[in-house]
Known about the structure:
By secondary structure, the protein is of the alpha/beta class.
Amino acid sequence: AALIVRFLTRRFIGEYGDMEFIYSHNLTVDGREILFHIWDAPSSQQAEEGSSEEKRIQWADSFVLVYSICDRASFNILPLKIQFIKAAKEGQNQEKVPIVIVGNKRDLHHQRVVSSEEGRLLALSLDCGFYEVSAAE
């Protein structure tokens, strides 16, 4: 949620609950106006395979999966989530679904438990994009 609010408003708010929100945002990209719909769904520590998770996957055209570089469990759940997304999306039409892995809290490098290299290697092995960012900065 902090990363989405930062993207939408350029402000940082540090505390959020575990609620889902859908945001809409217009952005001009290469001279074209693009309307984004962003479904912010807080992740449980296990891959959900229920109807709400499937509904979100079918709704979306692309995925940004965010983990905390200070929380190993949030990183470890990514392979299962990505496999679930790919099975649901790519099985239908054989097109590659755009997925980006984002390590957040880069500013808290003194609390880091997941290295940048681990993030890059995971993204490479799962054919995803990779970035490290700080919503706070």
